[in-house]
Amino acid sequence: MLTKRELKYYSSLNKAKYRKLEQRFIVEGIKLVDEALNSTFNCEIILVSETFAKTQTDILSKYKHSTIVQTITDSEFSIIADTQTPQGILAIVEIPLQRYIEEKRDGIVVALENVSDPGNVGTIIRTCDWFGIKDIIISSNSVDIYNPKVIRSTMGSLFHVNIYITENIYGTLKMLQKSGKTIICADMDGSNVYTFSKNESSVLVFSNEANGPTQKLREISNSVITIPKYGNAESLNVATAAAVIISEFAKHN
To answer: Model pTM?
Structure first.
Protein backbone atom coordinates (compact mmCIF):
# COMPACT_ATOMS: atom_id res chain seq x y z
CA MET A 1 0.00 0.00 0.00
CA LEU A 2 1.15 3.49 -0.85
CA THR A 3 0.65 6.45 1.44
CA LYS A 4 -1.70 9.17 0.15
CA ARG A 5 1.32 11.41 -0.32
CA GLU A 6 3.18 8.79 -2.41
CA LEU A 7 0.12 8.10 -4.54
CA LYS A 8 -0.35 11.82 -5.16
CA TYR A 9 3.33 12.25 -6.04
CA TYR A 10 3.47 9.37 -8.52
CA SER A 11 0.17 10.19 -10.22
CA SER A 12 1.10 13.89 -10.50
CA LEU A 13 3.92 12.95 -12.89
CA ASN A 14 1.35 12.51 -15.64
CA LYS A 15 1.17 16.33 -15.75
CA ALA A 16 3.92 18.42 -17.34
CA LYS A 17 4.16 21.02 -14.56
CA TYR A 18 4.81 18.34 -11.92
CA ARG A 19 7.32 16.52 -14.13
CA LYS A 20 9.19 19.82 -14.39
CA LEU A 21 8.91 20.45 -10.65
CA GLU A 22 10.02 16.96 -9.59
CA GLN A 23 12.39 16.35 -12.55
CA ARG A 24 10.89 12.88 -12.90
CA PHE A 25 8.74 11.11 -15.49
CA ILE A 26 6.85 7.84 -15.84
CA VAL A 27 7.88 5.02 -18.16
CA GLU A 28 5.17 2.40 -18.54
CA GLY A 29 5.20 -1.16 -19.89
CA ILE A 30 7.72 -4.01 -19.95
CA LYS A 31 9.61 -2.94 -23.09
CA LEU A 32 9.97 0.72 -22.11
CA VAL A 33 11.01 -0.11 -18.55
CA ASP A 34 13.68 -2.42 -19.99
CA GLU A 35 14.89 0.34 -22.30
CA ALA A 36 15.06 2.82 -19.42
CA LEU A 37 17.02 0.44 -17.18
CA ASN A 38 19.50 -0.34 -19.96
CA SER A 39 20.11 3.36 -20.69
CA THR A 40 22.12 6.08 -18.96
CA PHE A 41 18.95 7.43 -17.31
CA ASN A 42 18.61 6.97 -13.55
CA CYS A 43 15.62 4.96 -12.33
CA GLU A 44 14.19 5.95 -8.94
CA ILE A 45 11.82 3.01 -8.44
CA ILE A 46 9.80 0.38 -10.29
CA LEU A 47 6.15 0.02 -9.33
CA VAL A 48 4.22 -3.14 -10.17
CA SER A 49 0.62 -4.14 -9.59
CA GLU A 50 -0.25 -7.10 -7.37
CA THR A 51 -1.50 -8.99 -10.44
CA PHE A 52 1.78 -8.39 -12.29
CA ALA A 53 3.80 -9.45 -9.23
CA LYS A 54 1.89 -12.74 -9.05
CA THR A 55 2.04 -13.59 -12.76
CA GLN A 56 5.41 -12.17 -13.90
CA THR A 57 7.86 -13.44 -11.29
CA ASP A 58 10.60 -14.13 -13.89
CA ILE A 59 10.53 -10.53 -15.13
CA LEU A 60 10.58 -9.14 -11.59
CA SER A 61 13.59 -11.21 -10.61
CA LYS A 62 15.63 -9.39 -13.31
CA TYR A 63 14.87 -5.98 -11.88
CA LYS A 64 15.38 -6.55 -8.17
CA HIS A 65 19.17 -6.56 -8.59
CA SER A 66 19.29 -3.17 -10.31
CA THR A 67 16.71 -0.96 -8.60
CA ILE A 68 13.99 -0.81 -5.94
CA VAL A 69 10.82 -2.70 -6.87
CA GLN A 70 7.60 -2.00 -4.97
CA THR A 71 4.33 -3.88 -5.33
CA ILE A 72 1.16 -1.80 -5.07
CA THR A 73 -2.52 -2.65 -5.36
CA ASP A 74 -4.13 -2.91 -8.80
CA SER A 75 -6.36 0.08 -8.01
CA GLU A 76 -3.35 2.21 -6.98
CA PHE A 77 -1.57 1.22 -10.18
CA SER A 78 -4.55 2.23 -12.32
CA ILE A 79 -4.54 5.69 -10.71
CA ILE A 80 -0.87 6.24 -11.59
CA ALA A 81 -0.87 4.62 -15.04
CA ASP A 82 -1.67 6.68 -18.13
CA THR A 83 -2.76 3.78 -20.36
CA GLN A 84 -6.32 2.47 -20.32
CA THR A 85 -5.23 -1.18 -20.12
CA PRO A 86 -1.91 -1.05 -18.25
CA GLN A 87 0.51 -3.98 -18.27
CA GLY A 88 1.08 -3.57 -14.56
CA ILE A 89 4.63 -2.25 -14.51
CA LEU A 90 6.07 1.27 -14.62
CA ALA A 91 9.26 3.06 -13.64
CA ILE A 92 9.84 6.50 -12.18
CA VAL A 93 12.83 7.90 -14.04
CA GLU A 94 14.90 11.03 -13.47
CA ILE A 95 14.92 13.68 -16.17
CA PRO A 96 18.59 14.12 -17.10
CA LEU A 97 20.31 17.46 -16.66
CA GLN A 98 19.71 19.80 -19.58
CA ARG A 99 22.57 19.74 -22.08
CA TYR A 100 23.47 22.13 -24.88
CA ILE A 101 24.45 20.93 -28.31
CA GLU A 102 28.07 21.49 -29.24
CA GLU A 103 28.88 23.83 -32.12
CA LYS A 104 31.03 21.27 -33.91
CA ARG A 105 28.55 18.44 -34.32
CA ASP A 106 29.21 15.72 -36.88
CA GLY A 107 26.44 14.26 -39.02
CA ILE A 108 22.85 15.26 -39.63
CA VAL A 109 20.92 17.03 -36.88
CA VAL A 110 17.11 17.20 -36.72
CA ALA A 111 15.29 20.16 -35.16
CA LEU A 112 11.60 20.58 -34.30
CA GLU A 113 10.01 24.03 -34.22
CA ASN A 114 6.78 24.13 -32.21
CA VAL A 115 5.64 20.60 -33.07
CA SER A 116 2.68 20.09 -30.75
CA ASP A 117 1.35 16.56 -31.30
CA PRO A 118 2.86 13.92 -28.95
CA GLY A 119 2.52 11.14 -31.52
CA ASN A 120 4.34 13.18 -34.16
CA VAL A 121 7.23 14.10 -31.87
CA GLY A 122 7.58 10.51 -30.64
CA THR A 123 7.50 9.11 -34.16
CA ILE A 124 10.12 11.59 -35.39
CA ILE A 125 12.42 10.63 -32.49
CA ARG A 126 11.93 6.97 -33.42
CA THR A 127 12.63 7.72 -37.09
CA CYS A 128 15.85 9.53 -36.19
CA ASP A 129 16.95 6.54 -34.14
CA TRP A 130 16.21 4.18 -37.05
CA PHE A 131 18.34 6.20 -39.46
CA GLY A 132 21.19 6.70 -36.99
CA ILE A 133 20.60 10.39 -36.26
CA LYS A 134 21.73 10.95 -32.68
CA ASP A 135 21.09 14.67 -32.12
CA ILE A 136 17.62 16.22 -31.97
CA ILE A 137 16.88 19.84 -31.03
CA ILE A 138 13.37 20.58 -29.80
CA SER A 139 11.98 24.06 -29.16
CA SER A 140 10.58 24.55 -25.67
CA ASN A 141 7.17 25.47 -27.13
CA SER A 142 6.88 21.99 -28.66
CA VAL A 143 5.12 19.24 -26.70
CA ASP A 144 6.92 18.01 -23.56
CA ILE A 145 9.06 15.05 -24.63
CA TYR A 146 8.37 13.34 -21.29
CA ASN A 147 4.64 13.29 -22.01
CA PRO A 148 3.52 9.62 -21.69
CA LYS A 149 2.16 9.63 -25.27
CA VAL A 150 5.51 10.88 -26.62
CA ILE A 151 7.38 8.20 -24.68
CA ARG A 152 5.12 5.43 -25.98
CA SER A 153 5.43 6.71 -29.55
CA THR A 154 9.23 6.60 -29.38
CA MET A 155 9.05 2.85 -28.58
CA GLY A 156 12.22 3.21 -26.51
CA SER A 157 14.13 5.45 -28.92
CA LEU A 158 13.97 8.29 -26.39
CA PHE A 159 16.75 6.42 -24.55
CA HIS A 160 18.97 6.04 -27.64
CA VAL A 161 19.31 9.65 -28.84
CA ASN A 162 20.52 13.00 -27.54
CA ILE A 163 17.68 15.51 -27.15
CA TYR A 164 18.39 19.19 -26.60
CA ILE A 165 15.46 21.34 -25.48
CA THR A 166 16.05 25.00 -26.24
CA GLU A 167 14.26 28.18 -25.19
CA ASN A 168 15.68 29.89 -28.28
CA ILE A 169 15.71 27.52 -31.23
CA TYR A 170 16.63 30.34 -33.62
CA GLY A 171 19.72 31.24 -31.61
CA THR A 172 20.71 27.57 -31.46
CA LEU A 173 20.27 27.19 -35.23
CA LYS A 174 22.32 30.35 -35.89
CA MET A 175 25.10 29.01 -33.65
CA LEU A 176 25.19 25.75 -35.63
CA GLN A 177 25.08 27.69 -38.87
CA LYS A 178 28.13 29.73 -37.88
CA SER A 179 29.99 26.50 -37.13
CA GLY A 180 29.39 25.27 -40.70
CA LYS A 181 26.00 23.57 -40.57
CA THR A 182 23.45 24.16 -43.34
CA ILE A 183 19.95 24.94 -42.04
CA ILE A 184 17.32 23.24 -44.20
CA CYS A 185 13.66 23.93 -43.55
CA ALA A 186 10.88 21.58 -44.72
CA ASP A 187 7.71 23.20 -46.07
CA MET A 188 4.90 22.77 -48.61
CA ASP A 189 6.84 24.79 -51.20
CA GLY A 190 10.55 24.51 -51.82
CA SER A 191 13.24 22.63 -53.71
CA ASN A 192 12.48 19.00 -54.59
CA VAL A 193 13.99 16.83 -51.82
CA TYR A 194 14.81 14.06 -54.32
CA THR A 195 16.99 16.28 -56.51
CA PHE A 196 18.27 18.64 -53.80
CA SER A 197 22.05 18.56 -53.25
CA LYS A 198 22.51 16.90 -49.86
CA ASN A 199 25.38 16.91 -47.39
CA GLU A 200 26.04 15.45 -43.96
CA SER A 201 26.44 18.88 -42.35
CA SER A 202 22.71 19.59 -42.50
CA VAL A 203 20.21 20.55 -39.82
CA LEU A 204 16.76 19.38 -40.97
CA VAL A 205 14.02 21.49 -39.40
CA PHE A 206 10.38 20.39 -39.18
CA SER A 207 7.69 22.76 -37.97
CA ASN A 208 4.23 23.07 -36.46
CA GLU A 209 1.61 20.78 -38.00
CA ALA A 210 -0.96 23.51 -38.70
CA ASN A 211 1.14 26.61 -39.35
CA GLY A 212 4.36 25.34 -40.91
CA PRO A 213 7.66 27.16 -40.46
CA THR A 214 7.66 30.62 -38.94
CA GLN A 215 8.96 33.62 -40.85
CA LYS A 216 11.89 33.79 -38.44
CA LEU A 217 12.88 30.23 -39.33
CA ARG A 218 12.57 30.95 -43.05
CA GLU A 219 14.89 33.94 -42.69
CA ILE A 220 17.53 31.83 -40.93
CA SER A 221 17.32 28.85 -43.30
CA ASN A 222 19.86 28.34 -46.07
CA SER A 223 17.33 26.32 -48.08
CA VAL A 224 13.68 25.27 -48.07
CA ILE A 225 12.82 21.80 -49.35
CA THR A 226 9.60 19.92 -50.05
CA ILE A 227 8.33 16.48 -51.00
CA PRO A 228 6.75 16.70 -54.47
CA LYS A 229 3.06 15.86 -54.65
CA TYR A 230 1.78 13.33 -57.20
CA GLY A 231 -1.74 12.68 -55.90
CA ASN A 232 -4.65 14.62 -54.44
CA ALA A 233 -3.87 14.67 -50.70
CA GLU A 234 -3.89 18.16 -49.24
CA SER A 235 -0.78 17.64 -47.12
CA LEU A 236 1.47 15.13 -45.37
CA ASN A 237 1.56 14.52 -41.63
CA VAL A 238 4.75 16.11 -40.25
CA ALA A 239 6.03 12.78 -38.92
CA THR A 240 5.48 11.15 -42.33
CA ALA A 241 7.18 14.04 -44.11
CA ALA A 242 10.10 13.85 -41.67
CA ALA A 243 10.50 10.11 -42.34
CA VAL A 244 10.67 10.66 -46.12
CA ILE A 245 13.14 13.54 -45.88
CA ILE A 246 15.36 11.92 -43.24
CA SER A 247 15.46 8.74 -45.34
CA GLU A 248 16.62 10.73 -48.37
CA PHE A 249 19.38 12.50 -46.45
CA ALA A 250 20.48 9.28 -44.75
CA LYS A 251 21.26 7.81 -48.18
CA HIS A 252 23.95 10.42 -48.66
CA ASN A 253 25.28 10.48 -45.11
So the answer is: 0.94
